[in-house]
Structures are given as C-alpha cells and as structure tokens.
Design a protein that fits this description.
heterotrimer, A alpha/beta, B alpha/beta, C alpha/beta, B: alpha/beta, Rossmann fold, 2 domains, four-stranded parallel sheet, 9 strands, C: alpha/beta, Urease, subunit C, domain 1, TIM Barrel, nine-stranded mixed sheet, five-stranded parallel sheet, 19 strands
C-alpha cells in the first residue's frame, strides 16, 4: 500500500490563497461572511482561510466556526457508532453568507447533511462550499463553489489530506486501498 | 454499544465518549431548534413497569429531540397488571417492530433478562431496575460533576481524583450502585456514609470507603461532591432506623452541616427530595446544589445513550 | 408370564471387583464370575460400574395438584434415567400430603407407574402452616407407612411445634426432615446474601438464617432424645454445627444437594432464573466445605431436591421466578464430577451417600444394600468414562429447569433395574407400558 504525493505544502497554500481570492470576488468583499468548517480537517482549513482572508483585506475579521454534521448523516447505521464533535457558531448565521469548508468532496452526502444542519441553526442569505480537493464520484446534485484541486480518482483509492496541526506535515496524497 | 444495562460493564472509553456526545447534545438543547434527525424513523418504547414520571419524561424528551417516534407503555392499567408476563409483553412489542426498549422495572435484572432473552432483537436501555442499577442517572450525575468542575474543557476528561461522598440508603439504592461503579471507572474516590442497617453486608468488597458518622466523614475528606439519597419512609417499619428525626439528625444534610461544607462542594440529589428529612431546603436551594442541573443534563445524557445504542452497524445473527 | 431373567455381565462392583450379576424374579440370585443362565437377557456391563439402585430422600413429584410441572409417572421416569430406584416424595402438593388419603394416592400412582419405589413424605403440620400437627400417626399407619415427615419448602420455625413433632414421631420410629430457614431473616430473599447479592441488588438470604435453625433443632433433638434430619445443607457454618452435634452424640443426619456441591452464587449474575433455588447457591468456600463434609461423613447423604417448574415460571424476571431446579437425571454425574473425579470419594462412598444411607434414614429396608445374592434387585449401571455437555435431551422430567444445561459432566447412567426389571437401558427410559406391565407381574408374584 503506497501513497503518492499530489500536493506539497506550497501547492496547498497556493490553492487556499486562490480560494480566498475567489471567495472575496464572489462575495464582493469580506462583509457578512462566516466560515464554518466541517470537523475535523475542515475546521482547520477554515481557520487557515480566515487568516489568508484577513491578510488580503487588512482590518477585517472573518468569524470562523465548526459545524458538526454527525447527527444529520444518512449512514448512521452503516458504520460503527460515530463520535460527534462540537458545533460552534460564533455569530448568528441569519442573513450571512456561510462558506462551508471541508477537505475532500466525494459523494456529496456530508455536504447534504451540513445543509440540513445549517437549516436548524438559522437562515443564511447564501451558502457556499469550499473544498481543498474534489475527487468526483458525486451521488447527489451538489458541486463546490471553490475547489483547491480537482483530483480524478478511482473508488479503490483514498485521498489523504495531511495538515500540520493534525499530521505534522502539510500535503495531499493518494493511496491505493487494496480490498481483500 | 449494544445495550446500556449497567455501569459496571461500561469501559472508561465508552463512558467518556458517551459524556462527550452528551456535551454536544447539551449544546443542541440550548439552541432554538432543539431537534436532531439522527433517530428519524426509529420507534422507541418506554416500557415502564414502575411509575416514574420524571425519568419517563426525561427519556421522552431525549427521544423526541432525536426525532424518534415514541410509544409510552405504562404497565399500570394495562394487560401487564392483569398478569401478562414480561415475555409476552416483549414479544408483542417485537412483533410491532420496535427499534429500542427503555425499561423501568421493579425487579432487579429485568433489563438483562429482556436483553438476553432472544424475545426481541433490539437495544435495551435500563431506566432503573429494582435495587440493582440506574445507569443513566449515574451518567448524568457524572456529567454534572464534570461540567461543574471543568466547564467548557470537560471533553475527554474523567473524574480522576474527585472525592464523592454518597449518603443514605445504599442498601436499597440503584442510584448508589450505578454511581459507585461509574465513579470508580472514571477515577473518583467514593465514600459511603450511612447507618449499618442501610449498607449491604458485603460492602467491604466494594471499591469505596465506609463511614457511619456523617460529621466526621465530611470534616475529614472535605469532599468535592456530597450526594444525598432519598430515604423511603416505610423503611422505619422494617427497623432500619428508629424514626425520621433520628435519621435526619444522624444522616441528613441539615442546614448546620451544609454550612460547614467548603464552598466548592457540590450538593447532589437524584430527586425527588424529602426536604427536611435527608436534605434541608437551605442546601437544596443553594448555588452549590446541582439538583436542577441534574434534571437538565438528564436529557442530554439520555440523548447520548440512545444515540450510542441505536446507531452503528447492527450485528447480524448467524444461526 | 414372568419378567425375563437378566444376566449382567462383567460389571465392576463398588469395591472394584468384577462380577456377573444374575437377576431372577425380583431378586439378585447370584453374583460371581462366569455366570450363565439359559434364556436370560444379557446386559453387557464391561467397563460399567454396578451400584445399588439410588435412593433419593428429597424429590418433588408435584402430583397431585401441579401436573403441569411433573407427575408421579414423569418424575419416576426422570428417576430411572438418573439411576434412582426409590424416591421420597415431598409433601407440598395440592392437596398437601397431610392426611392418609393423599399419601396413599401418591403411593398407588408410584406402584402403578412401576419405575421406582415411591415413598410419600408426610407434612409435619396441617397445610404446611406451621401451627398445628398434621395427622402424623394416621399417615404412619396408612398403607404408605410414612416414616419421614417434612414441611419442606417451609421451615417448621415455631420451636414448640418442632419440639412436639420431634417427640411425637418417636411413636412409630419416624424422623422430621427440617427445611432450615428462619423466616423473618429471609423475607423476600432472592439469593445468597453476600458480595454478589450486594452488587445485583437482590435481597439476601443470609447463611445465619439456616445455621441458627439447625443449631436450635439439634439442641431440641438432644433435649427430647429424637432423631432429626436436616434437608439441603448449604453453608460452611451449617457443616460446623452438624459436626459439633454429631461429636456430641446427637442423633442427626444431614443431606446436601448436587447443585450445592457444584454451583455458586456467581451464577446469579446472568439473572438466569434456572439458578434460583432455595436454599440459594452459596460461595465457593461453602461448596468446598460441603464437599469435605460429604467425604468425611459429616453429611450423610446426597439428595436431589428435584423441583420441577414449568417454563413460564423460569423465563421471567428473577424476583418473579420460582425457586428450584430439576436434579434426578444429573445427580449421579454431578456427584462423580465433584467428588469422584476430585479423588475425594470412591464408588463405595457414592453407593453409601446415594443409596445405603438414604435408605436407612428413610426406613426403606428393600433398598440400599450392597450387591449380593438375596437382595431385592435394585441396581444401576454407570459408565464412568462418559463425558457429555448436559442438555435437554438428557432430561426425562416434564420440566426442563436444569441448571446444568450446557455444563460438562462426567459419568452417565446406562441402565437401571428396579424389582428385577429394566426401567432404563441404553441410556434411555424404557416405555411406560412395558414398565407398567412388568410392575403388574411383580404384584402378581
């Protein structure tokens, strides 16, 4: 089982910077913006995006939170019981533009769950989706607004997003999972 | 976790995971939309062979907040009071396609019998059985202690080094039993204080220290937690103690005793309280009292327990 | 038409010697090597141990009144499968065996079934209520010739009634078999009081509730000079009291059940009501004390306390379940497993505690004799090498509340001979019609 590096730390930073610029462009600035990461790596990426946004637009502060979608998943009976993670929303999301942040977009089911979870928290003006990697194979009519890198992959492969805060190193790798 | 029958067979890892999930459930209980879709389409029966409005509505709130369909089955006035057996009742529920059973029963071990009988293939949560166990009460007590001690930083923590003094009718208390096992698992030190008549004869085999003298016990340990148990007044008839006044004098948390406690000591009671008997109003209504926190936390902890037994892959039985 | 002559070939007797046993009519007529008899039915007993037919001083046959649990017929079939040729039937039937009419009915049912000698036990007090003596003399002088009296299931707790009963049965050489349980100390009791009951929250049945009654009763027996038998000893403390009493010369005998020789109160952890019994399963220290007392003769006999219950009274919550377990079919295997395999007893000891001594205590002269020419043919053949996981298929009782289901036991009864004919063969009970016909032949002489 070998892993192939797809993105290095510098590639990752460049991709996040591009996403930040695209967010500002589509939102016409940093006003009424809130970033909600999907635990665990989505939250870390959301914090990084906020730092980049604040460096591009001096003086602005972009609120960052986490949105746990565990209780909204449609596969609670197909996997061992999942631990939940905290949902922390620093400001009211009513009439805000919420950017959901996750590491990898795959079937789209996590995003579906996140949209439901958001509905229970308030009524945003708009919801956008930012992901570091899009590997295709969507099972729902969902697409990302901001994509760091498109990574066409096979079902038998796994995309690992490595982040210094969790893994000691930044990078994205693709792994062949040999199923028995 | 397939069932929640007892705290004795709960690992530290599972207990802490359950308390952590309960933290997330507590956050849901504080927001405007107090509902999660996790158990949508699941039917849960609250099978109460013994009256307990408090516990039943706590479970019902937890079930509804997780979007489960709820059926309340009170044995009084039903076919059960006409002699229908536990087996027949359970098989009837199984035939209706019940997904989980929350059972309260006057007989110790009834939830175990249900879970291992083969009459129904559904998770079972023990909501109090005889004088055996009341695991969700112990979990909500532990949750309450952890929150008071660690606040927002509670996640992932046990109760290591916390000293807890449990006072009252240990012999007949399922709350005490469940607390003793769980508190030990979470690393707390437990001290029991009671009359020798209200302690099991084999209490020396339990992981606790025992005292008959409440004043001495409180003074020597200055506990982080004092948990007062409800005393059943009918115990007097069976010569467990002479009368209420003597019980209150020796083992009640009187105003005077309460005032002698350090300010950090939290005062717990599983309710319903006999004010003036095992606990004074001064203690029950003080900021140190966690009585209402316990009620609120009960819903969050029961949501976590329901989530843990109902989700996950179901074991497929191979015959 | 007389019953067939039986030739048991190559059996090993309790003393270890090998012999053939020739049974004709109701008698053993010859024991020795190389016997032959023309036309005899041969039974190959190579590798099997031959013991005198087992005698159970403590059986609940449930008839009359509780025929959904057991009948005299099914209970004695269970006895035959377990190697028993005589059972003493406890008095707690409905109606209670406190009159000559009831004990004669049980006697007649036993004779007709033909599987074993059924000796009814009479109640000590009217209705087992503990307040007024039953018609002890009428039962003793009835056709059933009752000699053992017991309120088993309940204790004769009133010391005055106990004293009078002990004195009264001297009239006809009877014995009181006491179920030792102080009632006030065991209100709502569910299991042994100790570490396990404390943990499970089940009301405790303390050892002292048994020991205090035994202590009182041995002193009463000494005072009035009577014979006393103690049912189902279950604690180490009870052993100490009996040992002291015997040393003092008090005329007391004691029994232990197979389950108290093997099982402990930890079985209750499953809340499986098959393990609910009275007196309750105790600690492993008690089990060991009981085994030692049986081996050294402090405890005289093993008795089964075979207590059949229908499935609905066991498939329920512990507190609602009935007390008791079936034991006739498994008794000998449990005794072999606990006492012989451990080297604490030999087969002669087994014959003593399961046949000879219970026959003497019960005044049953036709049973419990060493195998020799001239005795009534009451025999059991045992395969001591049989190893099995005990299962429902090993039961003949109408009820299946055995605590041994799924437990490995050593030894199995192969054949049982009662009054000269087979009641069990090839590890199976013989058909009821055949056995009843054989019994009729015996009556005709």
């Amino acid at each position: 089982m070998t892993a192939r590096a797809i993105m290095q730390a510098t590639d990752m930073h460049r991709a996040l910077t591009r996403i930040a610029h695209e967010i500002l462009e589509s939102n016409r600035g940093a006003q009424s913006l809130v970033l909600l990461g999907i635990p665990t790596r989505g939250v870390t990426l959301a914090h990084r995006l906020a730092v980049i946004l604040e460096s591009i637009v001096p003086g602005v502060s972009v609120p960052v939170g986490s949105l746990d979608v565990t209780m909204y998943r449609d596969d609670l009976y197909q996997h061992p019981t999942r631990a939940s993670a905290p949902t922390e929303v620093p400001v009211s999301i009513d009439d805000m533009t919420v950017v959901l942040v996750d590491d990898v977009l795959y079937s789209g089911r996590t995003v579906r769950a996140a949209l439901d979870a958001l509905t229970d928290l308030g009524r945003p003006q708009a919801v956008r989706l930012a992901v570091l990697a899009d590997r295709g194979h969507r099972e729902l009519p969902i697409r990302a607004d901001f994509v760091g890198k498109n990574l066409p992959s096979a079902h038998g492969e796994r995309i690992n997003v490595l982040l210094t805060e969790h893994d000691g190193v930044d990078g994205v790798e693709i792994e062949e999972v040999v199923s028995a | 976790m397939k069932h929640l029958l007892s705290t004795r067979d709960l690992s530290r890892e599972d207990a802490i995971q359950l308390l952590d999930i309960a933290e997330d459930m507590a956050a849901v209980n504080e927001r405007e939309v107090k509902k999660l879709p996790a158990l949508r389409g699941k039917t849960i029966v609250n099978l109460f062979f013994e009256d307990s409005t408090r516990t039943r509505i706590s479970f019902e709130a937890a079930e509804k907040r997780l979007s489960a369909d709820v059926i309340n089955f009170a044995a009084k006035g039903s076919s059960v009071s006409k002699g229908e057996s536990l087996k027949d009742t359970t098989q009837t529920l199984a035939a209706m396609g019940i997904d989980a059973v929350v059972i309260r029963h006057g007989a110790s071990g009834a939830p175990q019998v249900l879970a291992h009988s083969g009459w129904i293939d559904a998770p079972v949560i023990n909501a109090g059985d005889g004088t055996h166990e009341h695991p969700t009460q112990a979990l909500l007590d532990a949750f309450t202690m952890r929150r008071r001690l660690h606040g927002a930083g509670s996640r992932g923590k046990g109760l290591d080094g916390v000293s807890v003094t449990i006072v009252g009718d240990i012999l007949h208390s399922r709350v005490a039993r469940s607390n003793i096992w769980l508190l030990q698992t979470l690393g707390a030190h437990v001290q029991l204080v009671s009359s020798p008549t209200l302690l099991p004869s084999a209490v020396d085999t339990w992981p606790v220290t025992v005292s008959y003298d409440l004043d001495e016990a409180l003074a020597s340990t200055a506990p982080d937690v004092v948990m007062m148990l409800r005393i059943q007044q009918e115990r007097m008839k069976d010569a467990f103690f002479p009368n209420e006044r003597e019980y209150s004098n020796l083992w009640g948390l009187t105003a005077e005793r309460f005032l002698s406690l350090p300010e950090k000591t939290m005062v717990m009671h599983p309710g319903p309280m006999n004010r003036g008997l095992e606990i004074s109003s001064l203690a029950a209504d003080s900021p140190q009292s966690t009585v209402l926190d316990q009620v609120a936390n009960g819903v969050s902890v029961r949501m976590a327990a329901l989530y843990m037994v109902l989700t996950g892959e179901r074991e497929v039985s191979h015959d | 038409m007389t019953n067939p002559t039986l030739l048991v070939q190559g059996a090993t007797l309790a003393d270890g010697t090998q012999a053939d046993i020739l049974v004709k009519g109701t008698q053993v007529i010859e024991v020795g090597m190389g016997l032959s008899a023309a036309g005899a039915q041969k039974i190959d007993a190579q590798g099997l141990i031959a013991l005198p037919g087992l005698v159970d001083l403590h059986t609940h046959l449930r008839e009359p009144g509780f025929e959904q649990s057991e009948t005299v017929l099914t209970g004695t079939q269970a006895a035959a499968l377990g190697g028993f040729t005589s059972v003493f039937a406890m008095a707690n039937t409905q109606p209670i065996a406190d009159t000559a009419g009831v004990v004669e009915q049980v006697l007649r049912l036993g004779d007709e079934a033909g599987y074993a000698t059924v000796r009814p036990i009479g109640a000590v007090t009217k209705g087992l209520e503990g307040t007024q003596l039953a018609e002890l003399g009428a039962m003793a002088h009835s056709r059933a010739q009752v000699r053992v009296f017991s309120d088993d299931g309940k204790c004769v707790s009133d010391p005055l009634i106990m004293r009078r009963a002990l004195e009264y049965v001297k009239t006809f050489g009877g014995v009181i078999a006491q179920h030792a349980q102080e009632p006030r100390l065991t209100i709502d009791a569910q299991m042994n009081e100790g570490e396990v009951s404390a943990r499970l929250g089940l009301a405790g049945w303390p050892a002292v509730a048994e020991e205090s009654i035994i202590a009182r009763d041995v002193l009463l027996a000494e005072h009035v000079g009577s014979r006393l038998h103690i049912c189902h000893l279950s604690t180490a403390g009870s052993v100490d009291v009996i040992r002291w009493a015997k040393k003092r010369g008090i005329n007391v005998t004691a029994e232990v059940t197979p389950h108290h020789l093997l099982l402990t109160d930890e079985r209750a952890e499953s809340f499986d009501a098959r393990f609910k019994v009275n007196p309750p399963l105790r600690r492993s220290e008690d089990v060991h004390a009981l085994r030692e007392a049986l081996a050294d003769g402090t405890i005289d006999i093993v008795a089964t306390d075979h207590a059949p219950h229908p499935v609905e009274t066991k498939e329920c919550e512990w507190g609602a379940a009935a007390f008791g377990m079936v034991g006739l079919e498994s008794a000998l295997a449990v005794v072999q497993t606990t006492m012989v395999e451990t080297g604490m007893m030999n087969w002669a000891d087994v014959a003593r505690v399961l046949s000879e001594a219970p026959a003497r205590i019960g005044g049953l002269t036709s049973h419990g004799h060493k195998i020799a020419a001239g005795i009534q043919a009451e025999l059991v053949l045992v395969d001591p090498t049989a190893q099995r996981t005990f299962g429902v298929e090993d039961l003949a009782s109408l009820s299946h509340n055995s605590p041994y289901l799924g437990i490995d036991l050593m030894g199995q009864v192969v054949a049982t001979i009662h009054q000269g004919y087979l009641t069990a063969d090839n590890r199976t009970v013989i058909d009821a019609e055949i056995v009843a016909a054989r019994a009729v032949e015996v009556l005709r002489g």
